[in-house]
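Hi R.,

Here's the chain you asked about this morning:
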Amino acid sequence: MLDSCQNAQERWGGVHKLIDRWLEERQELVQAFRALRDVRPAFADKDTNGDFCALLVDYVSAWHFEVCEQLVSEAKAFGDEKALKLAEEINPRINDSTQIALAFNDHCTKGECKDTERFAEKLAKLGGLLHERFELEDCLIEVLHNAHKEEGAVQA
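And here is the predicted structure, written out as tokens:
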């Protein structure tokens, strides 16, 4: 399910150092997610949960405060109205997943993840939301990258 994030780095790696670093953070998040999902006794381990939640919060924050901001700035600089409209349509869905991720973090921070069965359900739901989020983020990057790459080639 979350394997597609490596393909994203292959497609857009090198476009911009910020995006490269952020895609590396995505890969770390996916690895931490898998480790947490696969090691059931870790559900009650506050440190393991804390490490994952820190990566999760850093990742979603980087999208909102760095990556998306940069992509929108690039779209404005290129006069890319199509990409700006797409961002307006997609970002509310990404924002919704951010709120769920932050609620998951709050749940773990308060130590409310000792119920392993309930925690496993929340983690599975979060995994599905992350998968959808990655696809939405990739869509925005692809539209911006392809449009700007073509414009750059025309200008050269």
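One quick note: The two ends are 39 Å apart (CA to CA).

Cheers,
M.
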